[in-house]
Amino acid sequence: MTDRDLTDPEYYLNRELSELAFQERVLREGMDDRNLPLERLRFLAFFTKNTDEFFMKRVGGLKQQIDAGVTKTTPDGRTPKEQWVEVLDTARPLFAQQSEYWQSVLKPTLADEGIEICTPDELPEGDQEQLRTHFEESILPTLTPLAFDPAHPFPFISNLSLSLAVLSSNGGEEPTFTRIKIPPNQPRLISVSGEADRYVLIEDLIERNLDLLLPDLDIRDVSKFKVTRNAEVRRNEEVAEDLVDMVEEVIEQRRFATVVRLEVDADMPDESLTILKDQLGVDDREVFHREGPIDFEDFFELIDLDRPDLKPPAWSPKPHPRLGSLASDTRDETKSIFDEIKHGDILAHHPYHSFEGTVQRFLNAAATDPDVLAVKAAIYRTASDSKVIQSLINAADNGKQVAVMVELKARFDEKNNLEWVRQLEEEGIHVAYGTVGLKTHTKTALVVRREDDGVQLYSHIGTGNYHSGTAKGYSDLGLLTADRDIGFDLTKVFNFFTGPTLDDRFRKLLIAPVTMRERFTEMVRREAEHARAGQRARIVVKINGLEDPSMVEELYRASMAGVEIDLIVRDICRLRPGIEGLSDNITVHSIVGRFLEHARIFYFENGGSPEWYIGSADWMTRNLDYRVEAVTPVEDTQLREQLRFILEASLTDNRRRWVMQSDGTYEAVSSDDDPVRDIQEILMAATEAALDHGYGPGMIVDTDLIEEALLVGEVTESETEARSEGSDEADLDADEEQTHSDGGNVSVFDMYSDRWYRPDSETYDWAVRTAEGGRRYFKTREGVRNRLQTEYE
């Protein structure tokens, strides 16, 4: 097993194709009739939003490499040109499926429910006249037709803009090409007067009334199109005189960047298409013909309709039971949030727990508490009307020392963050806004407070941004702690943001790019050593992406050593599970639900002395080497219990979970005849149960939903388990037999029949009693046989 070449491209999946596989899972949710109609529409809109960003970032980056003549291959053995071709070929049928499902299934379904998207020609004459009047009075003045002819250059087409391509002539002349931009400051969905939920698309309304915009012309064709441009526009930070100026220039350059995709009406005539391809520099392969609407993102507006029968019940984030009581003054009206944190660590889980009642409350208290001396925060993304920023401003106004790290290079949030930098600096707050060569991706805040027993440090380390909006739709975790070691570690991190260097000595936190990769590598290797020694060894990791080839290689080695590994990876995953002798101890899961799974959780069994972590970093090369990231241990037993519940309930989900096959495809887990287990519904119920219970844990753990397999604390005494009734030995193959020291051929399962059993589990088919009295769970017979041999021979 040790002579495998773990750099073989066969063992690695392509990053870009893996990302598209995730987008396909999002699309499948939009086509799943188990979801209510407006929920399906929401997923179709998200598919458009996500793939727009994918083309801007990832396809744009590939095209940039191709233009630069890069031929270096990725770990999966593909050149940029090969990836570009495969990505476009893979994406094309996905867009076709989105359009087909909308046209043939979802649009008629919504119409049957009273929500109609019509063309003007489908409406009664009176409604058409009303819409024509609305067009003439409110839309026509905002339109600017731009002709392309010898007297007029080809107009600039902005990124993601929706346009009409019009071919017109005056008498028998050659047709003229005219571009009409659909105004982005007008609603895309125009309500039909007098109808509750009947709409026309603005582009259809403009087309229907072109005679008012282009009078006395012969309109030969009208086609819709949309342009996607490269967002991978960069400047060398080391030669930039000022990072703010550099980011402003990048934002401006992005407007004029290379076109990476052209979406057009399926029936656009060759004349219009040729003009667009020639003027935009687009290859035939980059043209996507679309039936029906080209852009679904504006359909998010329909999700807010007051139609509770067509979408899941609304979820309102709940107060954390340990903090909600403070707000109502029912427990101790003199007790502050800092007293509560000092009493014991608090784990907030958004959107199940309210962001405003946990993180925002922590920052508000820091701003107003007279004993707080200083407040520091790292902002990667935040809301445009951020209360977080206002809390920091209030803190400065109240005489606190305030330092804020705002990451200007947070892609697509650069403009928003630039505005916050200027506002913070106008308030006299010290702002750091970038580090040469690194992005700051930590989600951390530090409060310094003077107390009777000296200065105390209060920390928040999260997996998600300080963004009240995404906290309602992203599943994220955050630890509020008074742990002094963590506070000292965060002090070093914030000193790096304003100082010259990043310390590489930390007491508890794992900090990228200085210690995190090394520590994670050590922990994976330690599990492998435990497995070889016959001790408890298991890894469960919940992350958004697993791209780093070195981490994949370490996981392969751990699997070969016998470590059972479950990876809950939302989207990108280079690792191929289920390869015999290499990764047959690894299972890759992905969960796609109403909330975006964004939390990162790391569990290492460590021979019976488990370690638990949460933080901002995925196992991507960029996170481990090129970003400032923070991951914190979770040491409180009660909080570990909550993390265990999240992981184990996730692994038994049979509604939202997908499992990767060894070829990189995914299969949805079906409930069949079993009760449906939806992890997000389970966590909502657990949160409500905790709130009903009163002051105490953030979630009430339902022990019937978990396997009790992950350790919360150290194993202090032997575990015993009677062999389950009905163990089936008849299915053991003859090839299980081996020659033993007594000279006879006997199955290892027969030899150690009292050392294994079949657990009552939907996740694991086999269990082995270890020599130390513990239990190890396996999905395959091969894993059991290897463990029995390692443990007892």
From TrEMBL:
Annotated Gene Ontology cellular component terms: polyphosphate kinase complex
GO molecular function, a single term: polyphosphate kinase activity
Catalytic function, reaction form: [phosphate](n) + ATP = [phosphate](n+1) + ADP
Compositional bias of kind Acidic residues: 727-736
EC number: 2.7.4.1
Residues that hold ATP according to the record: N50, Y474, R570, H598
Domain Polyphosphate kinase C-terminal per the UniProt entry, residue ranges: 336-500, 509-674
A Gene Ontology BP annotation from the UniProt entry: polyphosphate biosynthetic process
InterPro entries (alphabetical): PP_kinase, PP_kinase_C_1, PP_kinase_middle, PP_kinase_middle_dom_sf, PPK_C_dom2, PPK_N_dom, PPK_N_dom_sf
Region (Disordered) residue spans: 715-748
Domain (Polyphosphate kinase N-terminal): residue spans on this chain: 12-117
Record-annotated active site: H441 (phosphohistidine intermediate)
Keywords: ATP-binding, Kinase, Magnesium, Metal-binding, Nucleotide-binding, Phosphoprotein, Transferase
Record's function text: Catalyzes the reversible transfer of the terminal phosphate of ATP to form a long-chain polyphosphate (polyP).
The UniProt record lists the keyword Nucleotide-binding: yes
Record's comment on post-translational modification: An intermediate of this reaction is the autophosphorylated ppk in which a phosphate is covalently linked to a histidine residue through a N-P bond.
Record protein name field: Polyphosphate kinase
Family that this chain belongs to: Belongs to the polyphosphate kinase 1 (PPK1) family.
Gene: ppk
Binding site for Mg(2+): R381, R411
Cofactor: Mg(2+)
Residue ranges occupied by any Polyphosphate kinase middle domain in the UniProt entry: 128-302
